[in-house]
Every structure is written in C-alpha cells, then in structure tokens.
Design brief:
Strand content: 15-25%
Number of helices: 13
Mean pLDDT: 87
Number of domains: 1
Order of helices and strands: HEHEEHHHEEHEHEHHEEEHHEEEEHH
Shape: globular
Number of strands: 14
Structural class: alpha/beta
CATH topology: Alkaline Phosphatase, subunit A
Oligomer: single chain
Distance between the termini: 23 Å
CATH superfamily: Alkaline Phosphatase, subunit A
Length: 487
C-alpha cells in the first residue's frame, strides 16, 4: 500500500504543478479569451455502489468516505451510472475510446505476459485531447497493454507513472514485505518545462484501491471499527480528498473532477469486498453464484459516481439519468471543444446538459457485455431500457464461499422492473402486456446495435496472445527493476 500512497502523493504534486502553470499562464495571457477546462478523472478499482457514504440510506453504518461525500455535497451525485463492463481491461478501454468492447476489441482482461493490448487502431481520449492542445498525464493502474507501443506514453499520455495491471498480478511483495525500498521517482524536467506551455490538462488517476490485496495503513482501526476493507476505503477517500484539495487551492472554477469505478465489488473475496448497496441480484444469489464483479447484475456495473466543478455543476444535486463510463469520452471532448475522429462509430452520449444544466435525459438504453462469467467474451448479454432490464444469459460468477451457480440462457429474456425491484429478485410475468412491450423494444434495440457493430468498418481486434518474455521486469530484490516505469 505504500506504493499506492506514493503514486497518489505524486499525483498531487503533479496536479499542483499543472494547475500552477495553467493559472499563471492565463493570468499573464489574454484575459478575454475563453479558457478551456481541465479534467481530472479518478477511477476506483472494484468499488461498490454502497461504499460511497452519500449513497447509503439513513441508519446504515457510518460513512468511510467523508471527502467523497463532501464532493457530492458540493457537486452532483450520479445514482444510475454504470461502468462499461464488469472487469478491468474492458471497462478502461471503453472509457478511453467511447466504444464497446465489441468495437474496440477489448473484451476481457490482459495478462502479465500479454504481448498486445488496446489495439493500435483505436484512438484514446488522451490522444485526441493531446492533439487538441491538452497536456495529458496518468497516474496508477493501466491494464491495457504494457509491452512497447501499448504503454500509456504511446497512447496519448505525455507523462505516466504507475503499475501495468492489477496489484495482485505479476511481481508482488509478500504481506509486510517492502524491502528493498523503492525510491521515489519525482517528476522530471519534462514535467517542469511543460508548466511554461500554458496548456489545459487531462489527469487520469486510476487507483489500485479497492482491488485486493488490501494493505491498510498502520493507523488502521480495530476490526470492530470496520476492519481492513473500511480502513482501506478511508485511505482511498483521503487520497481523493488530497487531489480535490490541490485542485480547489489552485483552479477549481476551471477544473472538472469526475470520480467513478471500473466495476463492482469482487464478491469472491468475502470480507475484503465492498458493498453493492440495495443492488443484491437476489434472483442469482438464491440459485448460487455471485452477482457483482464479472456479472451483468446491477452490483457488477452500477458504480458510485460524483461530478464536481464549482460554479458549473450545480452543488448538492442528484441526477438519476441513465449514464455510463462510455459517456465520459464524448462529454469531455464536447467541453474541450475538440472533435473525435470521424472514421469510426461511438457508443456514448454527451452528458454536458446533465452535468451543467440538470437535464435528466440520459441514455435511452445501455448494453451490458459479458466480461468473464458466462458465454462468449463481449457478448451483449443484458439490455437496460428505461427502468427495465432484460437478461439473455445469467450465472457462473463465483460468490463468497465458492459457489458459481449454473449458467442459464433466457430466450425470451428475463425482464426486471428496477423501479420497484432494485434487488433484481422477481422477473416480470412473460404473459403480461408490460413484458411483451418491453421485450419487443429490447429486441429491436439489441438487433439494431448488433447490426451496427457487424457493419462497422472500424472494429478492432485485440491480440490476447501471451509470452513470458513479454512480462515486465520483475525482481523483488532489485530496487531499480521494481521502480521502472512503462516506456
């Protein structure tokens, strides 16, 4: 965990520098021109919707996220926001490209020895903003390919320091073992010289929290006060608070902070997994198997999300608009006044009017792909349409205790009304008019999207081949090797 703290402290140092140079330049420059906003995306790993204190109902346990709660109070809480997938790589690829995995080629996780990564034919948010005059930096977990041209600094980021994939992959220290120490890698001259360029910036902070292994700080409380997970959650919240405070002290009126998650809790890890809140996936859990990460149940992809931009995003506001991590790509480009490449098709919507003007019209539908539990990777297994949600495949994700449940195909689909059944316990009766109407609309939307993807000439294919020679340098006895950044 010491490494995670260091990365976030570095993020704060880098952020202060970026904000200082942006503000200084604009004060000295033409005061009449319109300033383009800075963007900070904070992506938590394996976090539950119910982990955010502001999402908890009265009478629940005390909040472990005071900084995020304050951010929600001063900004907007997005209650119906979903990760684009329910595992790491597909979710991150979709966020950075604005395209489903069936378009960008990333349908499941890359491994330690992966030869490839996010296909080079794909264009990232960082590349587009960089070409549009933004300075781009990333801190934290990448997990979209660590070999050669697939690394972050070759995918649009001017600066990167972090880990190539999840903190339980590859070379990891044994619990309590942190020797030899890894010396800090301070921002080099390139970062400092960029302060003179007067650029707006994108800072993408991909946290290792709340992925296992969890290593709470030495000041962790007694287990009766929440245990290891609660202590780690408080630490994560503190890191978010440090980034927010650095932004507030410098250029808060011109900086949008967007906090969200890559997928829901890793239920298989039992007491080391987060809370899904009321989204329990009861139909599945009553038959065995998990209903969070790696599934298309609400607990797998509905994630805590907060948008914060003083003076622009209404304070103490809540939006129930149906949104997704796919929407971050078009929204930030719209706010920056930058157009995406016109030679490909996208899946997100511009949520500017929702964030800035309180509109409640989000996505008319969302598609939730299989990310590793059942069926073919990337299959559009579940469709959300308004308050209804239709499942074509269920089952097979491991729950705490080891049960997986049985994979089941549903044709016609199994449909839930989330407005009165957040726990997804009782599907609609297929003989009712409500079911028949929803089924018909869902089928039309699903067939239309599948046809659109099938005729999309810009679809990419990821290389999922592995070779141990492609694994990053790994020698826990060698300080320099452990501290290497991706080049």
């Amino acid at each position: 965990m010491a490494g995670s703290v260091f990365l976030l402290l570095l993020a704060g140092t880098l952020l202060c520098g970026l904000l200082f140079h942006t503000v200084s330049h604009n004060e000295a420059g033409d005061r009449t021109r319109t300033r383009r906003p800075n963007f900070i995306i904070i992506l938590a790993d394996d976090i539950g919707w119910g982990d955010l204190g502001a999402n908890q109902q009265a009478g629940q346990s005390s909040s472990q996220t005071p900084h995020l709660d304050l951010m929600a109070q001063q900004g907007m809480r997005l209650t119906d926001f979903h990760s684009p997938a329910s595992t790491c790589s597909p979710s991150r690829a979709a966020l950075l490209t604005g395209r489903h995995g069936l378009r960008n080629g990333v349908t499941h996780n890359f491994a330690v020895g992966s030869v490839g990564g996010l296909p080079l034919s794909e264009t990232t948010l960082a590349e587009i903003l960089h070409q549009g005059g933004y300075y781009t930096a990333m801190i934290g977990k990448w997990h979209l390919g660590h070999n050669g041209p697939y690394s972050p600094t070759n995918r649009g980021f001017d600066y990167y320091l972090g880990i190539p994939y999840s903190n339980d992959m590859g070379c990891t220290d044994l619990p309590g073992y942190d020797l030899p120490s890894c010396p800090p890698c301070y921002p080099g001259p390139q970062i400092l010289h960029n302060r003179e360029r007067g650029q707006p910036f994108l800072l993408y902070v991909a946290l290792a929290h709340m992925h296992v292994p969890l290593s709470p700080p030495s000041y962790a409380p007694h287990p009766s006060e929440g245990g290891v997970y609660a202590a780690s959650l408080r630490e994560m919240d503190g890191l978010v608070g440090a980034i927010k405070n650095a932004s507030d002290a410098s250029d808060k009126e011109n900086t949008l902070i967007w906090f969200t998650g890559d997928n829901g809790p890793w239920e298989q890890k039992c007491q080391y997994a987060g809370s899904v809140g009321p989204f329990l996936g009861k139909w599945q859990t009553s038959r065995g198997g998990g209903s969070a990460k790696r599934t298309t149940w609400e607990g797998g992809h509905r994630v805590p999300t907060v948008s914060y931009w003083p003076g622009r995003v209404p304070a103490n506001s809540t939006s129930n608009a149906l949104l997704s991590g796919l929407d971050i790509f078009p929204t930030l480009l719209s706010l920056a006044g930058v157009n995406p490449p016109s030679d490909r098709r996208y899946d997100g919507i511009d949520a500017t009017d929702i964030l800035l003007h309180g509109k409640e019209t989000g996505n008319e539908f969302l598609f939730h792909p299989n990310s590793g539990a059942a069926g073919k990777y990337g299959d559009l297994q579940t469709v959300r349409l308004g308050r209804h949600k239709a499942f074509y495949i269920t089952g097979a994700a491991e729950a705490c205790g080891g049960s997986k449940g049985r994979q089941e195909l549903h044709d016609p689909p199994m449909i839930f009304d989330l407005s009165g059944d957040k726990g997804e316990e009782t599907p609609l009766d297929p003989t009712t008019e409500e079911y028949k109407e929803v089924d018909e609309r869902v089928r039309r939307w699903r067939e239309a999207l599948l046809y659109d993807i099938a005729t999309d000439q810009s679809v990419s294919t990821a290389n999922y081949a592995t070779d141990q020679s492609a694994a990053p340098c790994c020698d826990p006895r060698h300080t320099a090797c452990r501290c290497l950044t991706l080049g």
